[in-house]
Amino acid sequence: MEFVKGDPRLQFISMLQSDTIWNKKHDKFQLKQTVFKTFPENQHLSAAITSNDSLIVKKADFSTGMMSGAILLGFNTNGIEASKAKIKHTSIIVSTLVLLFGILIGLWLARTISIPVLALRDAARKVGEGDLNQKIKRVQKNEIGQLEKAFNKMIDDLEKTTNALNEKNVALSNTNDTLNHTMIELKNTHAQLIQSEKMASLGELTAGIAHEIQNPLNFVNNFSEVSMELIEEVKEERSKKQEERDEILEVELLEDISRNLAKITHHGKRADAIVKGMLQHSRTTSSEKEPTDINGLADEYLRLAYHGLRAKDKSFNATLNTDFDKTIGKVNMVPQDIGRVVLNLITNAFYAVDERKKQGCEPFEPTLTLTTRKKGDTIVISVKDNGNGIPQSILDKIFQPFFTTKPTGQGTGLGLSLAYDIIAAHEGRLSVETKEGEGTEFHIELPV
Ligand SMILES: Nc1ncnc2c1ncn2[C@@H]1O[C@H](COP(=O)(O)OP(=O)(O)OP(=O)(O)O)[C@@H](O)[C@H]1O
Ligand SMILES: [Mg+2]
């Protein structure tokens, strides 16, 4: 039993003896255990001892021929509690140390990574908002420091680029001013050119108009002369004696005079209309739309253009065909504007056929055909020639202002461009069909 002394954890060892106790009547018995022996011997314990906070009691029954009972082992738990308390303390100290270490690492990380990164983020946001005074002042020596250096360099570069851009903006704005100025000058020049184009076409017309006025004037002169002669005859008749006078002849002569005066008035009015037309053509302000006899207008400008050209160049000759749709009636338009378009198409056509004739390499009959047609809601005026046609290479340029193939000084190149604008202003369409070596046909489409 000495091993109990050798191990402080063992408090006691005890042997219990089981006895059978009969009741008084001796008909029932019960088992009773008593302490047989305990070591150390000074320990006094009861057979019913159980485990408590400071003691663990283990019991093992035994039975032999001599006796039966149980062995009790008592373990002292103080040592275990002490070890538990020690482990608890140690773990608290270790946890605190780990926590402190963690906090230190956290602070260090915050100081070297998070704070600079956040500062970089804020600076980058402000740079994004346009504030370029966002340099990082205390640059570190680690990777974050390299990032900060790169950031500072970026700000420098940005500043330089912004300054350069600002300078370019100033330069651009100056160029813009100059361009605006040039634009205004160009607009003025354009207006002047339009005016000179009008005057040029007026010049083209003048010869034709002179020819046109000459014709009614000849009638007026001839009928006046004839009327004077007739009046002389009437006077002569009247100076005769009453019985010799031929009253029937007198009446006939007076009727002739009257007819002649009507003709003089008619041709006088024709000359008047021609002069009025010329004045209208030279007017600079844009005019009002009015119901216009298209066929009359086309015919008038054809004759004016032809005689105008013939007056300048006696050798010029062309066959003129007209095919007018009589059902057209009057169409709302600015007559002098549409007249200018028709005139330009006709002069272009005459120029083209004349060019072809001057090449002289084939028997050639210059021909111009002027057609009017009513197609549904539109009327079409077509000017067709059998000149050389327009080469495909320049076809898309002919409506551009100042495009001309005429020798310098002979054309402004504004004719078709103005024609295009006028027709567009009438909500119509100007188109061209052409075949090289065969001729060209322009169509003016106008809404009714
Ligand atoms: N009927 C045509 N046949 C062949 N080429 C034509 C014809 N009409 C126009 N062109 C071509 O289109 C060009 C431009 O014509 P546009 O009427 O605009 O100017 P222009 O006749 O040259 O000059 P301007 O009308 O001022 O006298 C002409 O130079 C010519 O090359
Ligand atoms: Mg022209």
TrEMBL record:
Segments crossing the lipid bilayer: 92-110
Coiled coil: 227-254
Domain HAMP as annotated: residue spans: 111-163
GO molecular function: phosphorelay sensor kinase activity
Enzyme class: transferase
EC id: 2.7.13.3
Protein name: histidine kinase
Lineage: Bacteria, Pseudomonadati, Bacteroidota, Flavobacteriia, Flavobacteriales
